Amino acid sequence: MIVQKLSGITVTLLLLLCQHACANYKAKHLLVCEGTSVYLNCDLGFIHVLDANYGRTDPNKCSEGKTSNELSNVHCFQETSLRTMTVRCNGRKSCTLSAVNSVFSDPCSWTYKYLNLSYECRPLKQIIICEDSRSVITCDNSDVISIHHANYGRRDFVTCPYRRAMSECYFTQTTSMRSRCNEKKSCDLDASNWVFSDPCYRVHKYLEVTYSCV
């Protein structure tokens, strides 16, 4: 009886823990019409964009007040939508982005578009290093580093504040950081133009890295 009771308690606790973890991994779906903004947010973990398209694949979505000519093209895809979203939003706690041609470019002229995307919140570690500074990331026990996302530039105006910070600068370094750090126990990080080159002259930058120990 005692064993059965303890087993029941264990199962209940495991179910509760699973529900909490699954909630963090559950994909969130968003759809915003052209000319408006989308807001991604993770109370726990960091943003990982799964899919995105800026265009039109349905004649009924975002259709109010629009003419038939603006809605008739349902084969409108912007192939770079996912990359745009990942570069700007992956590895952040929150991210606001406008669904406009100036951000995604126009995949189909005269068509009224919308941004359709999905993302999840992943439990990762993060380190931010201001320009001309150094740090190191390490993993304990037998775990090794796995880089999720890296950017050397500026994705907001509050991190590493400086008088030359009033400009955004997206310069993804995910592939570079993976080659430097993946499968290592520790990895030295140097946030400098000498390492990454200067993606935005006269902007005070920072190296932003999200990673896990696996």
Molecular structure report:
- The protein has 214 residues and is α+β, with helices and mostly antiparallel strands.
- It has two domains: 27-122, Rhamnose-binding lectin domain (RBL) (Jelly Rolls); 125-213, Jelly Rolls.
- It is built from six helices and ten strands, in the order H-E-E-E-H-H-E-H-E-E-E-E-H-E-H-E.
- It has helices spanning 2-25, 68-71, 81-89, 101-104, 174-181, 193-196; strands spanning 28-33, 37-41, 46-55, 94-98, 114-122, 125-130, 133-138, 145-153, 186-191, 206-213.
- The protein has a three-stranded antiparallel β-sheet. Strands 6-10-8 form a three-stranded antiparallel β-sheet. A two-stranded antiparallel sheet has the order 2-4.
